[in-house]
Here is the input.
Amino acid sequence: MNRPPVPLPPGHIPPGTAEWRNPDAGRWLAAAPARWAHPLWALLSLVASLGWDIAAAPVAPCTSAAPCGADWPGLGMAAVSLLTLYWVWRQPRLALAGLAVVLTGFAVEGDLMSALGEPSALAFLMAAAFTTAGLVHRLAAAGRQRALVLEAAGPVAQPLPAAARTFRRGRFSFVLAALLLGVAGFGYRQAQQVADAYEERAAGAAHLSGRVTALEQDDDDIDIVVVEAGGRTHRFETAYPEDFPVDGRVDVVADGDWAALVAEPYDATGWEVLVMAGSVAGAAFLANGVDGRTRSRRLRRGPLPVLRVLVREGHDDGRTWVFAADDPEGLRPILYFHALYAFEEDLEEGDFEGDEDGGDAAVVDLDKITEVLRGEDPPPPLREAVLYGVPCTGAEVVFVAFDDEDDAEVSVQCSVTAVRPAGPGLPGRGRQRRERANPQRPCDEVAAGMTPSAGPRTWTAHGFSRAVGLGLLLAQGGGIWAALEDGPSWHWLWLAVGLPWLVTAVATALTWRITADRDGLWVTGAWRVRRVPWDVITSVRHSDDGIRIGRDEDSSVELSPTGWAWLERRLGRAPHAVRTAEELRALLLRPELRPLEEAPAGRQGMPVGPPLVVLSALWGVAVLLLL
Here is the structure.
């Protein structure tokens, strides 16, 4: 039986506070950004196009006139590009600014009109345009959500509770930003010292012209340029052996036993990587801190709209889920965020004193901890709350509610992450850990959406499952290439161990199939089609991105992988394999829904594992012939 929401005392509800009810909440959710504007698609397009453009761009050779040293402008542009990718996910406004800088650098670096003739450059510009459209759409959607919240809240506005006005955001981000930017500064100083040491020594060294006599590799596969200059043979490590052809002329600076190529004077790659990592991470934390501090101050500027809602803490991830005030069972979450408690700064010492019976309280807490570790702790209750602020995608809010049903203290909590709209399929009720990890709708609910069918029912691999299969197929082809390119080696052992699993996973993800007929299920996996009669099936469930069909003989028929349920939920879709398992379970428990006919051979499926083995063998032979 569901527990009623924990009520909030009327004294903590401002007069005239409106309830945020399901119709208004539904309009707010409908105004959320469209699926095409999900940042994942923008990130994938940007990363793919940037990688293609970088790989296709010609690399300027290292010469005496243009030596290869530290390229700080290039590193700066790379840092802005990485930050932009991060901001596309987290901060749309900063992402727009970052894209503008990247596109400006793209235009300044070369002739923009001539670059449009290059497919890789054109792909990057198209990805940037798509990303920009998505960012603008997300910002516009947030504006529509703000307007809907203001309409639902009405004219009532209240100042923040006293505890929330003293809450400070961004301190931790500022500390991390200072540390990481300090690391980047240290790396920059060390790289400059390497460059200055070379310049100082080269200024007093002899400048010689030499001839490349050989290109070699040492025991660690490091490329070596062998140069004869000034009557001596010099050996230099190089990152670009193609820039120094045999019998070519190179310039050398030498001072006794010390010598260096003028074209590659020094190597500060390690310090440059440190500068890149520290500056990107430091700037990201700095931007997060400034954004959090700005939003926190904006909340404290004046009276805010208030709404009566229901809240519940997530059982596993600590998120705060917000529900409509007329959703007492918590069936449909509206939004979520992470929050921390806010306290007034002038608390008295006695406010932190415990009960006289402190020992019993400690025992109760220990029992709760034990329940949590065992996964037996009860789900947190729904609580009535007052929400301060204008919740929209990317905003921050404050709410007031009881800590729990046994606590007589009203708490104030402030969001520390941006508000996010809840997608379909997100759990509104607490369940046991295994059920929460693999949520399954009640059988009656699933059966209500199904109608009896005379003909067999079939479930096959969906778009996400086939995408997983194609990704694994590409990994398989690349693994075969990598293992065979150097001829017989220990890598072949990896191929013998990993290839069977890859073939099985690829074949299953691409073409898995389950057909239900009058007498049972036909389950098509990678290697065979198995018949499972209804009277031996004990359970059907989705777990670890696979479908498991339990049988009487304490064994199971498993199909895995059948998609990527986590990603499908993140994109607001109901996972296809989860829905398949639910409908199969409904057929198991509701015999009246089962088909009346037997499935013909054409609908029973065909495994593609054997043809995939032949295809892999042909690919391996082609690799050996090409190499």
User: Anything to note?
Assistant: The chain has 17 helices and 22 strands. The radius of gyration is 32 Å.
